[in-house]
Every structure is written in C-alpha cells, then in structure tokens.
Amino acid sequence: MMLFGDEGQEKLKKAHIFIAGAGGLGSPVSLYLAVAGVGTITIVDMDIVDQTNLNRQILHFDRDIGRKKTVSAKEKLEAINPDIIVNAFDVKIDGRNAADLVGEADGIVDAMDNYPTRYVLNDVAIAKRIPLFHGAIRGFDGQATTIIPGKTPCLKCIFPRAPPKEVFPVVGVTPGFIGILQANEVLKYLLGRGHLLTNRLFMWDGLQGHAEEICVERNPSCEACGGRQRQN
C-alpha cells in the first residue's frame, strides 16, 4: 500500500492483534485490520450468531445464524485476506485464561459488552505492557480511548466502578463508527504514525452528530495500575 510503504506494510504483516469479541465492535475492527494486512489476528467469542444481531454484527450473514461467531469470523477474515493468520477461540474470557489467550499479541482490542471482562483485559494489558484499545457503545452513543500502560490512565483509572449491567438496543452504525476508530488507533500504533487517542476519552453522540473529548488522568491510587506502572 502506497500510504504505508514497504516498511509500514512489513510492520503490519509482523504484527499480532488480539480482539476480544466478534460482535458489533469486533466485526468492523477485525475486517479493517484484516484488509490492512495485520499478519495475525486472534479473535475470541463464546456466542452464536443470532438474527437480532445482524444489523450491527456485519462480520456475520443470514446464512450464519446458529453458527459459532468464531467459526463465522475466521471464515470471513480468511476469505477477505488469505495471506493472514486468524486464530479463533470459542471460549469465555476470564481471569484464569485471559493472559494465555492474549499470548504474545502486540495489543488488545476491547470489543466487549461488559466491564468485568474489560477489567480483566485491562489487567492483562498492564501485566504484559501492551496497549488496550477500548471501545464501548450504547444506542446511538459510543466512546473510545487508547491505553498505554506506564504512560496513560488505565481503564480502572477512567472507570473505577463498572456501570450497572443492562440490556440496551444498539443501532448498527454506532459500533461501525467506534470500531473503525479503534481499528484506526491500532494501525497508528503499529505504524508509529500520528497522535494516539491517549489521555483522552472520545465520546460520540450519534443523534446530535457531535463528538467531544474528556481529558483523563492516571490515578496514583488505582487498584489496577497504581504503583505498578512506570514511565518507559
């Protein structure tokens, strides 16, 4: 690709990105990383494709209803770019297996729909000192930030307590918008280009067509990273 040059494309080819979730956010993230040429993508999900999710989970088609999302995801990603390696695991991410699942990945994409799992991914990112690309959606609204252990607030610094668990509808364009933003952050990080969405929480209001940023800071007393992070 002319935009990246041979050196940049080689960086992407050698990169390994872990994506937690093959649903609304995981769909656009994985598709755009695959077509960009990220060499190894590991994607984890434990659900099956449901008809009610197809409006936002663009990685899956009507014919995939009832199939495991991981099977559907691996099939589509390998079809769109046969030159990449796709690892797909049908398992629930928890504190016991998360570190092993992430393995030697260069970064973690948070494409989940619950904060307990997000906090587990946050802990793994801190322990492995790799970036966490956070994204979350609700209805027409979404948010994103990029976390670099040792340099930025971690997820627990930004959200010390998980919001109440709820079931909420999501319009398909919202995860598309936030997922593309997350994929863009991953590419910038791998290529060493531009300014990452660090120390800032990007917030999108789709109904108003308005975005704003909130500056966020590390919490020295954070139970996840306080005292454990250090400047590189």
3D structure, described in words:
The chain is an alpha/beta fold and 232 residues long. It has a single domain (5-215), classed as 3-Layer(aba) Sandwich (Rossmann fold). It has seven helices and eight strands; from the N terminus they run H-E-H-E-H-E-H-E-H-E-E-H-H-E-E. It has helices at 5-14, 26-36, 69-80, 98-102, 115-128, 155-158, 173-191; strands at 16-20, 40-44, 85-89, 107-110, 132-138, 141-147, 200-205, 210-215. An eight-stranded mixed sheet has the order 3-2-1-4-5-6-7-8, with helices on both faces. Helix 5 links the parallel strand 4 and strand 5 (132-138). Helix 2 (26-36) packs parallel to helix 3. The longest helix has 19 residues, at 173-191. The protein starts with a helix and ends in a 17-residue tail after the last strand. 41% of the residues are buried. The model has no long low-confidence stretch (mean pLDDT 94).
